[in-house]
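Record 1 of the preview.
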Amino acid sequence: MKRKSIAIVAGGALDAFLLERIREAQYIIGVDRGAYWLITHGVVPDVAIGDFDSVTKKEFSHIKKNVTKIIRELPHPKYVTDLELAIEYAKTLDPKEVGIFGAIGSRFDHTFAGITLLLNLSSYNIYGYIVDNFNKIQIVRRVLKLKPSKVFKYVSLFSLNGKTTVTLTGFRYNVSKRIFLPGSTLGVSNEIAAKQATITIHEGLALVMQSKD
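->
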């Protein structure tokens, strides 16, 4: 059986231009207010997950009318975010990739928590990424090939686990088996300078952010 691509839509910053990418997924999970946002933009998620404390009673009623499967019976007390519960649910579907939308917002704690959840997916060999209007964020364990993007001009790389040995080719600033360490801005604001650029991780784990101003 072919492994699924899954879109998880949370309640952070969302824009209608993301809908095309969300619709490409084979399975869509709406998280709390993200489920309501999807419905109001003409997309009915396959499942809605959360405690739904970010929607009104009327909005939750609208979700119930449209979504066949709702998971609201959550652990009490709840020690994890709704987004993590959605990721745990997604993992039961044996996905090939998980795109997370609406994970970035005004609260940086939730944004940072969302980024750390990419580690959760990576540890299960699931390709995961976060996308919003200005960024695409992913974790690289081995090799990532990138083409120039009209949307995301800049590429930044950060070490995640103490010492990351990296080779960059096809970039404005290339390196060969260079050691990246936490607490350094060495990998910030690079740019793709060829038809294809490659990030090779020889040792360690890297967080790669593609961004636009």
